[in-house]
Structures are given as C-alpha cells and as structure tokens.
Amino acid sequence: MEIHPKITPIYQTSVFKFDDLNELELYFGEPGSRYMYSRNGNPNSDELADAVNKLETGAGAVATGSGMAAIFAAMLCYCQAGDHVLCAQDIYGGSSSLLNQELSRLGISVTYVPFADLTGDLQPYLQPRTKLLLCETISNPLLRVVDVQAAAAACHAHGLKLVVDNTFATPVLTQVLALGADLAVHSVTKYLAGHSDVTAGAVVVRTEEDAARLKQIGVTFGLTLSPMESWLAVRGLKTLRLRVEAHSRNAVQIADMLAQQPNVRAVYYPGLPTHPQHQLAAAQGRGLFGGMLSFLLADEDEVVNRVMQRSQRFPFAPSLAGVDSSLSYPAGTSHRALTPEQRIELGITTGLVRLSVGIEPVNELLADLQQALSGG
Predict the structure, then answer these.
(1) Please, what's the b/e burial string for 157-169 (b: 16 or more CB within 10 A of its CB; e: otherwise)?
(2) Closest by Cα among 114, 115, 75 to 97
(3) Beta 109-113 vs 84-88: how paired, if at all?
(4) CA distances (Å), 71 to each of 52, 114, 170, in order?
(5) Annotated catalytic, 39?
(6) Residue 345: which pLDDT band, with cuts at 50, 70 and 90?
(7) Is residue 27 among the annotated active site residues?
(8) Rounded distance, CA 210 to CA 121, Å?
(9) How far apart are CA 138 and CA 140, in angstroms?
(10) Given the residues 39, 129, 241, 249, the one annotated as active site
C-alpha cells in the first residue's frame, strides 16, 4: 500500500541507506536526487530552506541551527581572513558580538557605519578588502527603517555585497532580494516559526553561484538544522502572513496609545506618522509595519521595574515575535555587551523598553499596558 501524506513526515534519522554502490554513485552524480547524511541534507531542512527561499524570491537557501549561525554562514559566504566588512551601527547586539569577538579572531575586521550613511557614499568607510555591508531592514531595538534599494545601490557602486537581516520585517513586509540585496538572513526562531518553540535560522541568496557556496558552508561547518526543528518551523510558516498582519494591526494601536501616555517620553514604531521613515516603511512594507516597537520611560530602574512587574500580558522575556506578547530590556539583554557609552550613542538608554506585540485581543493588551504605566 502506497502512503501519500498531505504533510511531510518528520525524517528523524541521521543517515539514509543505499541499496548498492550504483545508488551511492547517483547521490554524488545527481545532486539533490538522494539523501545520505542529515548534516548534508534532510527532507525536512530542505523543505524549510525551499519555503524561505520562495518567500524571499531567492536562488537558494539553507536552514541553520539558529539566527546567529545564519549570520555566521552569511559572513563566510563572502569573506576570508584579511577581509573587511561594514556593519550598520544599529544592529542586534549578538551580531556585533560575532563580528567583534569571533570573526576578528578569524582575521575579518569590521567598521561600523552610522544609520544616516548606509544609503549614501560609503567611500569614507572602505578599505582595500571591504567585501560587504550588513544591516537590518528594521533595526533592533529602535526600529529605524533602511531603504534597502538605496543601500544596495550604494554597495554595488563599490562592488560590495549587501547582507540584510530581514527578521523584524519578514518577507511579508519586505522581500529584500527583490530590492537588490545579495543575501537575506532570518532568525527563524522569531516570526517565521512564530510560536516560541523553535530555535532556527535561514540564509537566502540571490545567485546560483552564491547558493552553491552557501550549501558548502552549511555542510562543512555542520550548520544544518535538525529534522524536528525544521518540521516545526515549516508548520509555523503556514500561518506567517496571517500572524504578521495581526501583529501589525495590534502594534499600530498600541503605539498610538503609548504616544499619548504622559510618562512615555518617546515611541519608536514605523507605523506612527511621526516616525522619521514612516513613508519609506509604508512603501517598503506594503502598508504593514510589523509587530515590534520600543518606548522610552524615565532612565530609572525602579520606573522600568514597576512597569514590568505590573504588566500581566507582557512577560519579561529576551526573545520576540511569538504569538504571545512579551517585553524586553535592550540595555540588559540584546545590547548588554555594548559599553554604556556605546549604548548612549545609539539611543539605547536605561529607560528603553521593547515590546513584541502578539496576536491576542488588542483591547486586553491596551488595558494591561495602561494599568502598568499608571503605576510607573
């Protein structure tokens, strides 16, 4: 009896067997026609990679064990010892730690570029072996929006690759490869999987040549995602658009409410007309602005603590983008590794709180934040 499952089964196996040497030769002679070892490829991880590749309109992708593994693979795709990279100053703290602490040990140096210069003349930041620029579509945690098309033009004018972390925006808002980026990175842990039960990453490239190199890196460094995690992430992807639309609808209302609170000094959300890149965000995000926002309270620990402790619907958690709302404290979590001076320069003060707005009934979220702030 033949079995035709509607959903891809979980291939929870480390190896695949062959009938004979002829079948083994087919594996090496016809790439993609057979599976041998799950580090080299597995139906589940390939399904996830193919799905994210289609979402980003790419030429190839790999699924990795985490978002950090994805960024590491992206760097190695274009760089070797002695090379130099540019990175946006507004970047996830884990990304800057990777560049500063680990890639520097491999002989890859970094220069940070202010947000205002990402889409302008990069010449002042270039070195003879500069290979790429790394930035985020929507920055963590101050929600600055990069004009991806302009950044790609600025990079390509100097023969650089543009690597974009598209985690906050997702391909629902912005397909960065279609706008000229050379490589897209995702922490699949966040919106793509969407349920706070998976740790995964993905890298998508625009050319077949880069896809072959990326595949080699994934296999050689053992970055391939496990079958079970891949299966869970694919399941989450099926509701991605619905979830992102719901996240965005809720976040717009919450940002508007926060902007009217007397003890909130500033709100950072691209969906607010007062946001400096609001028009760009509306065009680049297809009218959606995502589910992430930050707001600024007084720079006093007790004020921030009171709000966190009083909130019942926004638990304090260091990650983001699940269906359930949460809040985080960038100065003490994602950007903890920066010096106080670096954080102040970026605007990440001790009063900054980041919200990951979930898909719960928005009236419940609004009421919870209002009561939490009333005691702040």
Answers:
(1) eeebbbbbbbbbb
(2) 75
(3) parallel
(4) 15, 20, 16
(5) yes
(6) confident
(7) no
(8) 26
(9) 7
(10) 39
Angstrom distance (rounded) from CA 170 to CA 190: 10
Return the structure tokens found at 151: 């950044």
Q: Between the CA atoms of 246, 252, 255 and 259, what dihedral angle is there, to the nearest 10 degrees? A: -160
CA 328 to chain centre: 16
Q: Out of 161, 190, 215, 343, which one is annotated catalytic?
A: 190
Tokens of 277: 């890149």
Report the side by side order of strands in the sheet with 292-296: 266-268, 292-296, 352-356, 326-328
- Residue 36 burial (CB count, 10 A): 14
In 163-277, alpha helices (H): 170-173, 208-220, 227-237, 240-259
Alpha-carbon dihedral angle through residues 320, 322, 323, 327, given to the nearest 10 degrees: -30
Mean pLDDT of the residues in the chain? 94
Q: Catalytic site residue 92?
A: yes
Look at residue 343 and tell me whether its pLDDT is greater than 90: no
CB 173 within 8 A of CB 184: no
- Residue 127: pLDDT band by 50, 70, 90 thresholds? very high
Catalytic, 165? Answer yes
